[in-house]
User: Fold this.
Amino acid sequence: MKRKKSKQTQPAADSGVSRRDFLRGAGVAVSGSILAGEGLLHAAADAPGAVRGPGETEVVLRINGKQQTMTVEPRVTLLDAMRDRLDMTGAKRVCDRGTCGACTVMLDGKIAYACSVLAIEAEGRDITTIEGLVPEGKLTPVMQAFVDNDAQQCGFCTPGFVMAMTALVKHNPNPTPAEVDLALSGNLCRCGTYHGQKAAALQAAKAMRA
Ligand code: FES
Ligand code: FES
Assistant:
């Protein structure tokens, strides 16, 4: 099948302007708009609360029901803010690119990768971490099911799995094995304890129903 040629702008051919002139002109126009944009940015930054950053800014997070105030650059992820500023190391940093699920937390009750959310974006939301599941140090049914089913080896992925599994049984108290697979598909375990984790999810759901 013949491909339709896309139309291209040809400034040099019929306008008497060389390609080099065109590019030079475009460069000036672009840098002009960048400068204008910077000016606007600075002007906006002067208005209180309008623009934050690029330097450090105060961020208030509600984590496990507690207000936490810190100063971070807007580019800092929720995961790094929690681990580096609050010493909350339950959520793990493994891939740091939204692939492995080791950093799983809940935002307003729904699971999220903390490495893929900026701290500043998480303001005003209810953040729940693995630390928040056991305020009294007692194992939850999901955690107990992990123990009972030997669902961990090195344990590095475990907090992320526990968070994903907790969200699953909360929203679906009677999941099928296929639904468990789907719910845990965003988490990876390098030790390969998937069989135990699946059994743990089914046991936890049963315990929660009871
Ligand atoms: S560390 Fe966040 S998904 Fe892997
Ligand atoms: S238990 Fe080791 S990575 Fe999952």
